[in-house]
Please model this.
Amino acid sequence: QSALTQPRSVSVSPGQSVSISCTGTSSDVGGYNYVSWYQQHPGKAPKLMIYDVTKRPSGVPDRFSGSKSGNTASLTISGLQAEDEADYYCCSYAGSYTYVFGTGTQVTVL
Amino acid sequence: QVQLVESGGGVVQSGRSLRLSCVVSGFIFSKYGMHWVRQAPGKGLEWVALIWNDGSKEYYLDSVRGRFTISRDNSKNTLYLQMNSLRVEDTAVYYCAGSTVTTDIFNYWGQGTLVSVSS
Model:
């Protein structure tokens, strides 16, 4: 149950795109199509942004998209806006009804 | 609308016990599995435990198995986390979380309750 690996931080100008990687193993990210992504603003509860690798819940802007290749999943935010500045966490099913989160990525809008 | 409200957090000495509660409203609680997720101060999210909708199965993070027990009372729409033999490293905000889509995601979260374990 080791945490999935994410870049610690990324900085992007408004209107640009950013991709955040989430690297695991064949026992979690690579083994199942159950990767989800969460946005967390300071002092707030996380919010679901993407689930089942590519699905977007109702109400989440289509600027947010997800993908996966092998043991690495990615969250892409297109046309970055000021309100997208937050921490982002990936999460994967890890078998036997257990789950593992990523280390988290701080997104800064320049 | 959906609401998850946790309570029961506080300051406790290492080795002692604490029970967290989470009252759920806005969806049919008895139909869905529920989770506890924690976040140590300034750190990332960590999944802690899952319980099936009928309470028949429980699953845990390795480091809490044998010390923590997740349970639920579907007649009260309430989820619990009994935490025994608490350690300093259990200090965190504890969130209850669930989903009406699939058990493998967390699309509803409570506001969190802080558990602080002192030595």
Notes: The first strand of chain A starts at residue 9 and ends at 12.
